[in-house]
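Weekly modeling sync, notes
Attendees: S.R. (lead), two postdocs, one rotation student

Agenda item 3: backlog of single-chain predictions. S.R. asked that every request posted to the team notebook include the full sequence so nobody has to chase files. The rotation student volunteered to paste the first one in as an example of the format we agreed on. Action items at the bottom.

Example entry:
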Amino acid sequence: MNVLILNTEIQAFIDANIGKSISQLALQKNPFPNVEWISILNQIEAKTKAAFKLPNWFSTDNIIYPSKISVEQTSSEKTAAYKSSIVSGETLIDLTGGFGVDDYYFAKTIKHVTHCEINVELSDLVKHNFKQLKISNITCFVGDSLETLKTLNTKWDWIYIDPSRRNDVKGKVFMIKDCLPNVPENLDFYFQKSVAVLIKTAPLLDITAGLLELKHVKTIHIVALENEVKELVWELHKNYSGNVNIKTVNIGKDKNDIFDFILNTDSKFPNFSLPQKYLYEPNSAIMKSGGFDCVAIYFNLNKLHKHSHLYTSTELIPFPGRIFEIQNTFHYNNAEMKSNLEMTKANITTRNFPDNVENIRKKWKIKDGGNTYCFFTTDVNNAKIVIICTKIN
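Predicted structure, as returned to the notebook:
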């Protein structure tokens, strides 16, 4: 950790250049020759990234940032705050501490938090930042977290793990065992140290695949931030063997949309119909959950088609997603398109449709934007249709 970066003039320079082009700044002469120019540029870039994602860090004096990539990979404050609502008790140990954002929020709920980090410089940096943030109930340990867990010889109320993908794992699809630490391999040992384990994984992890690797899963939290799924949070409890609860959370600017259901236990089937007066599109957390029938049944909505994952009703119903009022519906063919699609600008979505948005725009010369929303989808009769809407919510 380079404490020279905390020089008052350097900190003022960093603040004055927030948001500016790093490539342009890099061409300038370093006004502070005692500190590497790349280190100063990194602080500007990382702090710029933190402005929206980590407002408490951004607004606190003398915070030192790791690389921009580390800031990009850490939890946002909003998702960290949600995770802190899951845990309770006296003690929690974070085996993959990183930049410490999750622990900052765990420390608001848990009496004492332990932050483990294998990187010495990052651990020192986090310890410094916690002092600036006036957090006094977090203890930082450096080294391999598995060895730390063995050495401390303590029983914890919670173990938290945010495993990272190994560099030698190629492709987008991955398994939890391909990450560090290897949670499936160490899970029995973790349960010797705690009765509850919380695991954060990337949203691209397949839920079914994760359930095959893990045991004692009680709840899977699918956490989205402003309709973008950011993380899956797996809540495990020692010896638990009941049904798995799926909890979808979309953290919005003004409120959180929450919808939960029990995985693979609902024997009921939704109703289907042609488009009615209103159209509903689930938020991204529900889309990731796969609870397409459950959401229809719970909100008493009709599905347009088994695989379209769009819903309709004659009466307006509050819903965790986008809501539209249908203006027109017609079959997708040349004659109908030429007759009904007079707009030159529209927001286009495809669901269970053979063509993609880019090709549709190109073929029918429709620009992006405006107040009109077009859904290209398949109805209950397997017909390809276009639904023209205006957005309500």
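Discussion: group reviewed the output briefly. Residues 74-262 form a domain with the Rossmann fold fold (CATH 3.40.50.150).
Action items: rotation student to repeat for the remaining queue; S.R. to check formatting next week.
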